[in-house]
Structure formats: structure tokens, C-alpha cells
């Protein structure tokens, strides 16, 4: 499809702040050029977060050409190609998925993309879902054209609240397809990110929050903030446990964007008292820190044909990843008719990051041997 051809459409895309800078250009030069050369209305509402919404209103052919000229420049280096994320009203997602998933399966086969995914979770405070397309520029744009034509035949139904990037929630961005923490296009190469479930809790560490000192049981712990980093530095530097406890007490609860109150503050204070009282004396520093760091659980999916690269003979590789990362890693069973297997990684953020890196290395080193 060429410039000036195709139906008139309004398409909205979720892009990273860096990509928005490329579209806008130095001093607004590039966006001005786009507006002058194409009969397309281009808007990028302001946002101070990691993502922006790009709105293109014009003929489909011109929109495709705009991306053909700019898409590669908008991306970080990716082995899989470029990553384009389209925002659609939740009522329109069905026309892309199709009954029983037949349509999205057809699109995947025809497009040859590395990833074509419709996220289930709505973007924060909106009625929008994200459709992610990852692959070569030409293949991505051909698939985008097909999806845009499908959307034309299925206008939005029901109430509508377009996503505002100022409502970004970086801690669940992996759930809805945003550009927040850990979702900047540097994930597992051939492992396609499924909704990452962030379940912050103090699992085996309930001793920190069960009210040893008469406080009663606490609720779910909040996001860990500066207190963990402070104690980490203290222990790594060889400071006595009591000094680390004092630092923890001083910084406990000072989480990003939150007051110095709540379960995290309670847990921090309790842990500080325990350390100072000698409950953790004699524990290795690494083990002591594991008691102070909340665990999270993350899920990714990998195609059945690549699972062997991760498992290795008799599970030797996955066991090595478990050993080196200290993370708990579980792989779902093979189910008839299902193309992907789910890998659940549980541990501290550091352990999960290490496990993801090691899994990525397995795919890179052994994927071609499958």
C-alpha cells in the first residue's frame, strides 16, 4: 500500500519515550517534516514516564510509510527486529484473535513475525489493550496493515477511555504490554514475554512480619525501596549487623512514591530489631539479605520447539540455571494443541534477572541445534 492509499484511520501506538524523541526530532524538526510531507495528523501527548502514546490520523498507506521511514530508528538493537505496539479498544481485540484463536494463528503464519501477541490486561485506567508485533520492518508493517483492515470492520463497542501514558504503572507494565521496568525490548530473545506477574511478598520470610514483637500479622508487603539497598551496602561493606540494622531502621519504608508507613515499614522495623537483637547473627550475609528482600514471581513463554535448548539432556541445563541463579524455576507440562510452554521464575529481583539472562544464553547457544 502506497502513500495516499487505503482507508482513513486513526491508529494509536504505545511507544517508548526514547522512540518519541526520534519521532519528534531535535527541536521538533522531524515531526514537523512528517506533518508537511504526509496528510496525516500526528500527536504525541506529553508524559514524564517511560512511555508515550503516538496518534496517527490519516490514510493507512501514509501511516505505513511514516513507520517505514522511522521505525528502525525508534528501536534499540534487537535480534528479533523492531517492536511495534498498537493500542486497540478491548472490544476490537476479538476480531484480531478470532474464534478459538484461529485468526491470530493465521496472522502469525502469514506474517512470519517473531512475536504477535494480544495482551489480556487493559492498560491502566483505560479500555485499551496492546497488540505487540515484533519482527523485520517489512513483515511488521504488512501485518499492521492486515490488522488495521480488520479493525475497520469491527468498530469499538461500549464505553471508551483511551490510554493516557501519564497513568503508567511500571510495576505491571509487563502485564499490559507497556514500556516500564524490564520491558524495554531487552528481554529473552526467542523467549516471548508473557504477562509477568509481580507478586511481591515475604514468602518464607514470614518471620519478619508475623509480629514477633507483638505487632500482629502484617498484610502483603509493599514495594521494597531504599532500605534493602542500604542494608545491602552495609553488609557488603562488612559493617556489623547492628550497624546494618540501624541503617535499616533509618531508611525503612522510604519507598518510591510512598509515605514512611505501611507493611514495608513494619517489616523493615521488625527486621532491624531482629538483626540488632542477634536473631540473624551468624548467618552469611547473602542469607541474611534474602530474609530482607521480597520475592517476586515472573512468567515467560517459550515455543515448544525451543524448550529443548533450555532443558538440555536429562534437564542438565535448566538445573544448572537453577543452581547458578538460586531462583526457583518451573516449566509447565506439554499440552496438546498448545504451541508454548510457560516458565515460572520465582525469587528476588536479582535472582530472576540472573535466571532470565542464563535462559537467554541457553537459547542463543543451543537454539540452532534443535
UniProtKB/TrEMBL annotation:
PANTHER family: KH DOMAIN CONTAINING RNA BINDING PROTEIN (PTHR10288). Coiled coil: none annotated. Gene3D superfamilies: K Homology domain, type 1 (3.30.1370.10). Keywords: Repeat, Ribonucleoprotein, RNA-binding. This is Heterogeneous nuclear ribonucleoprotein K. PROSITE patterns: KH_TYPE_1. The gene is hnRNP-K. GO terms for molecular function: RNA binding. Residues 7-75, 80-152, 294-364 form the K Homology domain. InterPro entries: KH_dom, KH_dom_type_1, KH_dom_type_1_sf.
Amino acid at each position: 500500500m502506497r502513500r495516499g492509499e487505503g482507508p482513513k484511520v486513526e491508529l494509536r501506538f504505545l511507544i517508548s519515550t526514547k522512540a518519541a524523541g526520534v519521532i519528534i526530532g531535535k527541536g521538533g524538526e522531524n515531526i514537523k517534516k512528517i506533518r508537511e510531507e504526509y496528510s496525516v495528523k500526528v500527536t504525541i501527548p506529553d508524559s514524564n514516564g517511560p512511555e508515550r502514546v503516538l496518534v496517527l490520523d490519516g490514510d493507512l498507506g501514509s501511516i505505513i510509510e511514516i513507520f517505514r521511514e522511522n521505525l528502525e530508528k525508534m528501536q534499540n538493537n534487537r535480534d528479533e527486529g523492531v517492536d511495534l505496539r498498537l493500542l486497540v479498544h478491548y472490544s476490537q481485540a476479538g476480531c484480531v484473535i478470532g474464534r478459538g484463536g484461529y485468526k491470530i494463528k493465521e496472522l502469525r503464519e502469514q506474517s512470519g513475525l517473531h512475536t504477535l501477541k494480544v495482551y489480556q490486561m487493559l492498560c491502566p485506567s483505560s479500555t485499551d489493550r496492546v497488540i505487540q508485533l515484533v519482527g523485520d520492518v517489512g513483515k511488521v508493517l504488512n501485518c499492521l496493515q492486515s490488522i488495521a483492515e480488520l479493525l475497520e470492520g469491527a468498530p469499538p463497542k461500549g464505553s471508551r477511555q483511551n490510554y493516557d501514558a501519564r497513568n503508567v504503572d511500571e510495576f505491571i507494565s509487563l502485564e499490559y504490554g507497556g514500556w516500564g521496568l524490564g520491558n524495554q525490548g531487552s528481554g529473552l530473545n526467542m523467549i516471548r514475554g508473557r504477562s509477568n506477574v509481580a507478586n511481591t511478598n515475604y514468602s518464607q520470610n514470614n518471620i519478619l512480619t508475623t509480629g514477633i514483637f507483638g505487632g500482629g500479622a502484617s498484610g502483603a508487603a509493599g514495594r521494597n525501596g531504599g532500605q534493602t539497598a542500604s542494608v545491602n551496602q552495609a553488609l557488603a561493606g562488612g559493617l556489623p549487623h547492628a550497624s546494618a540494622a540501624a541503617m535499616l531502621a533509618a531508611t525503612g519504608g522510604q519507598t518510591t512514591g510512598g509515605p514512611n508507613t505501611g507493611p514495608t515499614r513494619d517489616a523493615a522495623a521488625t527486621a532491624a530489631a531482629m538483626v540488632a537483637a542477634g536473631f540473624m547473627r551468624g548467618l552469611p550475609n547473602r542469607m541474611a539479605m534474602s530474609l530482607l528482600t521480597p520475592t517476586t514471581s515472573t512468567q515467560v513463554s517459550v515455543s515448544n520447539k525451543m524448550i529443548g535448548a533450555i532443558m538440555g539432556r536429562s534437564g542438565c541445563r535448566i538445573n544448572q540455571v537453577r543452581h547458578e541463579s538460586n531462583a526457583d524455576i518451573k516449566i509447565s507440562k506439554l499440552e496438546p494443541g498448545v504451541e508454548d510452554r510457560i516458565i515460572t521464575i520465582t525469587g528476588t529481583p536479582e535472582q530472576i534477572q540472573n535466571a532470565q539472562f542464563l535462559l537467554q544464553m541457553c537459547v542463543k547457544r543451543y537454539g540452532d541445534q534443535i
